[in-house]
Design brief:
Chain A is an alpha/beta fold. Helices cover 39% and strands 23% of the residues of chain A. In chain B, β7, α7 and β8 form a beta-alpha-beta unit. The chains are: A alpha/beta, B alpha/beta, C mainly alpha. Chain B: It is a peripheral membrane protein.
Amino acid sequence: MAIELKDVSFAYPNGYVANEGLNLVIKDGELLSIVGQNGAGKTTAVKLMNGLNKPSKGDVLVDGVNTKEKSCAWISKTVGYVFQNPDDQIFNSTALAEIEYMPRYMKLSEEEVKKRSSRAIEMTGISHYLKMNPLDIPYAIRKFVAIAAIIATQPKYLILDEPTAGQDKRGNEILENIIKELKRDGTGVIAITHDMDFVAKNFPRIVAMAHKNIIADGTAKEIFWNSAIVEESRIKKPQIAQVAERLNLPGSILFREELTNALR
Amino acid sequence: MVVAEFKNVNYKYPLTDEYALKEINFQFEEGKFYGLIGENGGGKTTLCNLIRGLIPHFYNGELEGSAKVFGTDIKEHNVEELAVKIGYVFQNPFNQMSGIKSTVFEEVAMGLENLGVEKNEIIRKVEDVLELLGIEDLMTKNPNELSGGQRQRVAFASIIVMDNDMLVIDEPTSQLDPQGTENVFEIIRKLKQAGKTIILVEHKIDLIAEYCDEIIVMEKGQIVCSGETKDILSRMELLDYGALIPQVAVWGHEMGGAGMPLPEIPITVEQAVRLVRERGRMTDGN
Amino acid sequence: MEKSFIDSFREYQKFDNWFINFNPLSKLNILLALGFSSMLLNNWKYGFSLCILFCILAFAVGRGKQFMKPFSVIVLIFGFFTLVIRQFSVSGTTVLFELFGVLPVTKEALINGLNTASYLLGFSGAIVLFFVTTEMRDLMYALEKKGVSHEISYIVLASFQTIIDLKKNTDLIMESQKARGIETEGNVLNRIKAFFPILGPLVLGAISSTEEKSIAMDARAFSVKCGHTFLRELRPVPLPEKVVVILTDICFVLLVVFKIYQVFG
């Protein structure tokens, strides 16, 4: 089963075309990151995957179901989506209530609600904040409350829109842990981010977007060591790769250990 | 010259038990560019609020110790005037537009109108600042219809035009892409050249390493260490404080561990490249 | 292009024609006087002539479309309803014809209805014409010059952008809630269930952005107490314009006096 984009274009009601001719297959349990400049069509593309945007041309299939035939809320049981700004999502008066809201809305048994919520809380490391009013929780941690609330619905694929924005070292570590844990549970993760070190470290597959379309699809080494792609999608190479490039070292180096070994 | 001086400052926000700032002792010097880094919730924004007089004038709470800005105790400042003397740019570009001006030119001019500056003087200053920041092409655009990155540059222009000597900049790039981030840092570089005192809160440690003169690291409301950028950002213990150091610095330490120490720890790509070459020459010489 | 744009601020703002060039307060004065005069006279011939005058004026100054759009709706709704209601509330004797063969339409009720409709339309026409020929920022500029505080001016002007922003935010929050699985479409129950998840973030977002905005505006000297200058300036009111305004007001006062005399005399 998979998310499949088949020659998909999308235009907003005002006529602005944001995606043109997208073709992409995301398999079960895959970790994929979408990179590229703002305005390249990244967010529009992921909104096509959960039915928030319905294609103007072409088809999007989620586990074989055409998104045109179902509501976004229905598809969200399979494809969860965490928006960039947690404040667009959170409305309950405690973090715990926010996390338990969707499992309850889905009419799961109380036992299942507790089980799913505690798994989500454990993954996101927010157990200290459960009784707090979300407004009193620092913004960066609020992002984890929002993520936990979606994880608790146990979607098969989880979309994260700029999860790294504004995160500190600990926040990035928690995110890495979330991705690992989801991977272990067999959940696919699709993340939009501008943090290239984070991408190189955590995502085996990268999709680079520019001018409304996908311009490259490959591993971190293939993407970051192809200067045409880096240039066109206006991404910033990880620091270690920059050093290796300046020193003309072979082997598409991305990580510190590789750089050390190359200099032995 | 010292522009802001804090001695044994402790501060608690209203209705909270924990100190948001603990034992702050620090002097900010004129014309220096400070990078304020550390964990979220560590007190970075609170310190910015104190410097700008929002504490104690806007947020009450308990303030202890001596906090002086421009030689005057923070409590005695006229907060409206202090807000203008110390420019402020923050994270969300949308909330920094006035929402009442229909072109970028007028948006940038608003602060000067409020100060009662003569019209031809306003026009001259706005033209200058748009040129300085390279955003002349935006001047006839509606500020409410720009992208986040463009708005953030307009926000900078709207503050810089008032010719403040000191700027507090709180996470200006966290909602921007690499191109937008680069544009913002280009602006900050120009401000530094113009001799402004700058206090920048930022998570993008590579850029901090490249631009700042001094680093202040905060954790749990305290300043845990501070000093010259090169000295601070090459320390591994920053990671224990919940702060980041550049990847090349971590790598520099690992090179030492692998028995191939570099002459010093690099904090930028430039330095790393230079140091590898130097080391190459040294080993060749042996 | 940019040079001439910048230079446009050095002089007083120029508008495409004489009527729009009128100072907003002069315009408001004249149009209100005309609007109230149609109320005082309560005569359909005068009222409708005034409406026709407004239409001609709107087209003559290039705001015909903008004027007709709201005005025609007002004409249809107010005009039609007043005529119908008056048929029921005013008992007349001169039956003109019988609607559907049963409802009598009388001359007295018709004229009464026309009179009422004409003064409602005359008055609303004046208001609509004012707003399609005056930019809000120019009105606020003129009011600020007369001593209205710039805080009030800011609130009025910012409210337009605030409404646009609120709409955008609502859309975003709706998407966010849909994306987590809350049905916002379909039956009434679904919609009611989706109410809090949308309203909550909207209100909280508005509060926090207001706080941020006020801090941002203070950094731009919004609260500094001193005289302001204006980058964008309207011309001072020229003598002929003053004369027109004063003459209009004299006529209006005479009309009021005449009306009082008619009622009590």
